[in-house]
Amino acid sequence: MAGSATKIAGLLALLLVGLLACAREAVPVVKSAKSAGQDIASPADFERQLVRLINEERGRQRLAPLTFSPLLARVAEHHSRDMARTNFFSHNNPAGQGTEERINRAGYRWRAYGENIGCGQDVPEKIMAAWMKSANHRETILSASYTEIGIGFFQGGECRYYWTGLFGRPR
């Protein structure tokens, strides 16, 4: 009986892999759990991976790595969630509040700040590639003005995937 269950599980896994291979664009399952012995990426995993990619690029340019800021990450995640839930894509929310107002309200005391946003990219490598192709986003990533970073990723809304990268230098 146990052998039959293992064979059925194996066939179902093979069928799933085949279906994903035929799909126009495979959509990652985003939750924090283990499935069939494999890790599934969570939003926090994606956020950590994007910080790593940004710091790798900064290292190639001989810039200091950015330190993770939990406060900036909370503000970034909230903005990504807000964009998804109210279906807008902008540095300013529909009430007109921008980046500076959001970080000030959160209590971040800054000397410098910057923000990158993205929508539609389903994995960290894709948002990183998009940001690096954009002069303004690339400039933010490679600015020596910043020492800290927070990333917020949220799945939902019209774009399906929303990213906010907050860069800062505290006072």
Question: Helicity range of the residues?
Answer: 40-55%
Task: Name the structural class.
Answer: alpha+beta
Give me the Rg, rounded.
Answer: 19 Å
Largest sheet: 4 strands, mixed
Mean pLDDT: 83
N- to C-terminal distance: 65 Å
Q: Record the strand order, biggest sheet.
A: 3-5-6-4
Which overall shape is indicated by the principal axes computed on the Cα atoms? globular
Q: How does the SSE layout of this entry go?
A:
Elements: H1 2-22, E1 34-35, E2 38-39, H2 43-60, E3 67-68, H3 70-86, H4 99-106, E4 110-119, H5 124-133, H6 135-141, E5 148-156, E6 160-170
Parallel strand pairs: 3-5
Antiparallel strand pairs: 1-2, 4-6, 5-6
Helix pairs in contact: 2-5
